Amino acid sequence: MTTSALSKAREAFVEKMGTQQFQQLFEYLPGIYFFAKDRDSKLMCASQPILERLGVSDEDGIVGTSDYDYFPPQLADNFVKDDRQVMSSGQPLINRMEIWYNEQHLLDWFVTTKLPVTDKDGEVIGLMGLVQSYEGKKESLLPYSHVSDAVDYIREHHCDRISVEDLAQHIGISARQLHRKFRQVFGMSVQDFLSKTRIQAASDALIHQNDGIADIAIKFGFCDQSAFTQQFRKHTGLTPLRFRQHYRTM
Questions:
Q1: What is the pLDDT of residue 225?
Q2: pLDDT above 60 for 34
Q3: Whether residue 11 is found in the same domain as residue 125
Q4: What number of CA atoms fall less than 13 Å from residue 57's CA on the CB side?
Q5: Is 90 helix (H, G, I), strand (E, B) or coil?
Q6: Do 194 and 170 fall into the same domain?
């Protein structure tokens, strides 16, 4: 067969098979979660683990919903902002570090990849993506051992008062080198990563623990409740009190 004939045979095969069977493949890839959205960032399909994370019983229940139905507004804003970037540029977004829901429905670090979806005419009609846990992706995501050491230290000691200088000294490089490596790998500063990790842990505590907000602020390394509230609102769009009230009723 000629190259043209082979190409037509492949297209006919894929058209007959449809996309549903491709999607089923993701159910058998451990630790990898698949989703697809339309041009308005409305969810069109998702693999079973995502449905479980979002508390949806079947795929029909997720169709037409958005990140704003499941996540704090500030997190949803970031997800949709990335969606718009991928769809407007037509370029994939690879290995973006984001806070997402883990198996226990707690916020944790995950790695997301998004690619544009086009129709037969090449027009972008949405996007598809994969989500994988930070731990499952760590070896390939962190080509710099110093960055890996710093991330592990932050995740284990986020309740402590950690300065960038102290962290850099702990892993044996300068603060400037550490900042540069974090920008290269994560697209954010060391301080932003530390703040988001603390906010993620504090979010879980607000929902699942009965400690006062001032106590949670001190517990997770903030100097006082005011500083905690300011940072929490910056990252989630809500005050700690409003966040607790809203997500405890869900």
A1: 92
A2: yes
A3: yes
A4: 0
A5: coil
A6: yes
113 lies in the same domain as 70: yes
- Which residue segment(s) compose the domain that 25 sits in? 3-137
- Split at pLDDT 50, 70, 90, the class of 57 is confident
Helix (H) or strand (E) holding 49, with range, is: helix 48-54
Distance CA 218, CA 228 (A): 8
Q: pLDDT for 186-212, tens place per residue?
A: 767 888 888 888 887 888 889 888 999
Question: What is the predicted pLDDT for the residue at 193?
Answer: 83
Name the nearest CA neighbour of 62 among 40, 47, 73: 47
Q: Give the per-residue pLDDT at 18.
A: 62
**187, 85 contact by CB (below 8 A):** no
Pick from 74, 76, 18, 85: nearest CA to 43: 76
pTM over 0.85: no
Q: 200 is written with which tokens? A: 């993620």
- Compute CA distances 49 → 46, 138, 147, whole Å: 8, 20, 29
The CATH number of whichever domain residue 116 belongs to comes to 3.30.450.20
CA distance 128 to 46: 9
